């Protein structure tokens, strides 16, 4: 907040404060969502992005530009767009989970498979519509579907903070149940955990957090994977009362530290989201190769 502080101090502090608040919210939402998702699936390679939520976000943006155009979007306002995007993402997840869990029970493999298929479908539809856009509209769309930490308006940050605070309270109250759920379905049910109800609630909270993060800054596919897998060896414990604050702090340090290095050390030679996606993608490939070798 105070590095090389000069000039219009009020404007600079406001701008940096909004960026910092955005990074803290994204660090919490993406990191905790990935941690919970990996706890439920008992797999440290999977992330909530495999459910197709980020592909749906890109499809929503494409449909808005295609059918409403940029002038129509201005009528909704920043808060209206944010609420619509977050609600659509959460409604999709709710419908998917209720439909799947109601038909086949808590079959996580089926949920993941349907999520992958939906993600592929959404990307295909988005690609088709993007080819039909005018060049100017396509340029506007490109600026909306790439993650950036500088475009969130104060009212959007305030709405996100309220939603994140309510979600944080709910998750923290479940921290001991999460320890039991991480043992697996059979052991958890044997220890008295209502598996179906708890897993459904956790997946819905994960969807809400991913929706908030994606609607706030855009898609960050591998950020949650990166910070979650950095947290496990750093914390050295399986207990969620330590993992939950640990993943949040790791995410904040990653985002804020990365932004400081890019701005002050490299003179903005790159974009933070691109660097994070590159490192996270490399980590994901390394996990896949390591697992295949085993």
From TrEMBL:
InterPro entries (alphabetical): ABC_BtuC-like, ABC_transptr_permease_BtuC
Write out the GO cellular component annotations: plasma membrane
Q: What GO molecular function terms would the record report?
A: transmembrane transporter activity
**Record's subcellular location:** Cell membrane
Keyword Phosphoprotein belongs to the record: no
The family annotation for this protein states:
Belongs to the binding-protein-dependent transport system permease family. FecCD subfamily.
This protein is called what? Iron chelate uptake ABC transporter family permease subunit
Entry membrane topology: Multi-pass membrane protein
Query: Which Pfam families does the entry mention?
Result: FecCD
Q: Mind listing the UniProt keywords for this protein, alphabetically?
A: Cell membrane, Membrane, Transmembrane, Transmembrane helix, Transport
Q: Where is the signal peptide?
A: none
Q: Does the keyword Transmembrane helix apply?
A: yes
What parts of the sequence cross the membrane?
Answer: 18-37, 49-68, 74-97, 104-125, 145-169, 201-230, 242-262, 268-289
Species of origin reads Mixta tenebrionis
**A biological process (GO) annotation for this entry?**
siderophore-iron import into cell
